[in-house]
């Protein structure tokens, strides 16, 4: 029964977001005010990021690195673009993994709802950030993700247990922490790595990390992304391209790919994330110095 409720709520959230997003895109496109960025490069970036996202690496950090490398998105609208563009690909992932991996329905539903509420609260704040705040927040957030991924690679994090659900105090901890992870998601810090760490630390089976973390993102992203759309705090053309090719990447990864050297790829991703974080923080320092200089003059 609860699983049906999960699917029903997810369907409603997704339809609401899709209508909001496509109406906004069509309106701006008709006015001839779409961004001039390369649709096909953005599509390639979206395909790659969401392909590896389906395998558990996460998409926000690699996507940020690639968008920065190809100079596709301004820093100010980067959080909104990440949330809007990855919403439908992540919903596709969640629908696949929730149906094939067994997880306690109450644990799943509680964590999904808490992350969604956190995202709505976070998006209301982040959508109004100026460029400097975004650069600082994302630079620090990416460093946190890199540290968590490094800890996982070096087996410094708890490796989990065999539970498929939580009760009592552990369930309360999971719900509260997932609320804050949902809020942080709107800054551009991916939920996968910290959510996986949380699940392992609470003694749950590593397998249930997939439906919980993907389901959490699928629930929170339509809500937070709709807020970014309404605030026009995202890149429409890049988001549409990543959405289309991202869904294709998810389906190929989920149904066609049997094995990849994930450990090697994860090391590469960690290096890229650290580089992107340093780039963001340097851009923040540069803007801060310019602002100080203009004030002194």
TrEMBL record:
Q: How does the record classify its membrane topology? A: Multi-pass membrane protein
Where is this protein chiefly located? Answer: membrane
Localization terms from the record? Cell membrane; Membrane
Give the transmembrane region(s).
6-26, 38-61, 81-101, 108-127, 133-151, 171-202, 208-226, 238-258, 264-284
Q: What keywords is this UniProt entry annotated with?
A: Cell membrane, Membrane, Transmembrane, Transmembrane helix
Q: Name one Pfam family in it.
A: TauE
Similarity comment: Belongs to the 4-toluene sulfonate uptake permease (TSUP) (TC 2.A.102) family.
Q: Which PANTHER family match?
A: MEMBRANE TRANSPORTER PROTEIN HI_0806-RELATED
- Name-wise, this protein is Probable membrane transporter protein
